[in-house]
Amino acid sequence: SALFNFQSLLLVILLMICTCTYVRAVIPRLIDRNKEGFLGLFWMSARIGERLSPYVAIACVVMAGTLLVQ
């Protein structure tokens, strides 16, 4: 159902980026061995989380604020 609600889709993407970045920091072999194919999405999400971490953090705070207001 997150595909039909834009806010839910953004929340799922943000959570995936944050989770993949955390998993790569704790167990890098798990994420780094799958750089291609469907599982490569997790590697790309981890890279986005590492390189754009201030923007991802701001997006998480904004998303939390909007969820609290609703």
From TrEMBL:
Family stated for the protein in its record: Belongs to the KISH family.
Pfam families reported in the protein's UniProt record: DUF1242 (PF06842)
Name of the protein in question: Protein kish
Listed transmembrane segments: 52-69
Keyword Cell membrane: no
N-terminal signal peptide: 1-25
Its job: Involved in the early part of the secretory pathway.
PANTHER family hit by this protein: PROTEIN KISH-A (PTHR13229)
CC per GO annotation: Golgi membrane
Record membrane topology: Single-pass type I membrane protein
Organism listed in the record: Postia placenta MAD-698-R-SB12
